[in-house]
Design brief:
It contains 10 helices and 12 strands. With 262 residues, the protein is α/β, with parallel strands linked by helices. A hairpin with a 4-residue loop joins β4 and β5. α8 runs antiparallel to α9.
Length: 262
């Protein structure tokens, strides 16, 4: 596939209210719809969504349950949120299809095994496949919680994107939590020159999250950029202009650009 391919993640903190279990932020879905309407015929898209208040409540409440019980609840909750997003987009005219992550990705004793063909054929047929962070099967411990970013990285080994765009409820990576600190400063570019100092600063402020706080997310996002050699944008999903420009790869973008490709 020679066309431009962009992976776009709708973060859990963007599409849900994380302090209220099983809550959906429909204003966020409206924003996604608006942005996609401007880019869907100009690039090929692979969408992904985080677990937000669906997955995190289950992980927090039931992770000590038996493997079978936990897998059932985790997969049901993540599948439900993904279905809400996909069904919403289909209702508004988009050719989105849900791809169950645990059906195409498992963890072996040494690596991940990925059945990537559903993504490839969906793209060839002009569809927008939508994956999601989930509890997948693991040869090691019975199950493994994978973030959408991890799913993107493994898929990108077969379907290489030109860039990745992560949609959040804030403008990007800040030097401190912008929701609680009025003096927080947006870090507009993260590269080889400043990544270590930024990670050190964020590590001191890391918060709990089923798949890691801001520190953990940046650490893994930097790894993706380095391994794939592509730029990654983190932008506010409600800023339609920045989302569109980030997806298309040009124009003004308010957000954080992570580029460790050099």
């Amino acid at each position: 596939m020679s066309e431009t391919i962009v992976f776009v993640k709708a973060g859990g903190s963007f599409i849900t209210f994380k302090d209220k279990p099983f809550s959906v932020n429909y204003s966020a879905l409206d924003s996604i719809r608006e942005a996609l309407s401007m880019v869907q015929n100009r690039v090929k898209l692979v969408l992904g969504n985080g677990g937000g208040s669906f997955a995190h409540y289950i992980v927090k409440t039931y992770s000590s349950s038996s493997t079978g019980a936990f897998l059932t609840l985790c997969q049901e909750s993540t599948r439900r949120l993904n279905s809400i997003l996909v069904d919403y987009l289909v209702k508004h005219g988009f050719r989105t299809v849900s791809i169950q992550t645990s059906a195409i990705m498992v963890e072996t004793a040494s690596d991940f095994m990925v059945f990537h063909y559903p993504i490839v054929y969906a793209l060839k047929n002009g569809l927008i496949p939508v994956v999601y962070g989930e509890c997948i099967y693991s040869e090691k411990n019975g199950y493994r919680i994978v973030s959408t970013e991890e799913v993107f990285l493994e898929l990108a080994r077969f379907v290489k994107p030109n860039r990745i765009v992560l949609l959040t409820n804030v403008d990007g990576i800040y030097d401190k939590n912008p929701l609680t600190h009025s003096d927080a400063k947006l870090i507009e570019r993260i590269d080889q020159e400043n990544i270590e100092s930024i990670l050190e600063r964020l590590k001191e402020q890391s918060s709990s999250d089923a798949t890691g706080g801001v520190y953990g997310k940046l650490l893994f996002t930097a790894r993706i950029s380095r391994e794939l050699g592509i730029p990654i944008y983190i932008v506010n999903g409600f800023n339609t202009e920045s989302v569109v420009n980030a997806v298309l790869g040009y124009g003004s973008v308010r957000g954080s650009l992570i580029d460790l490709s050099q």
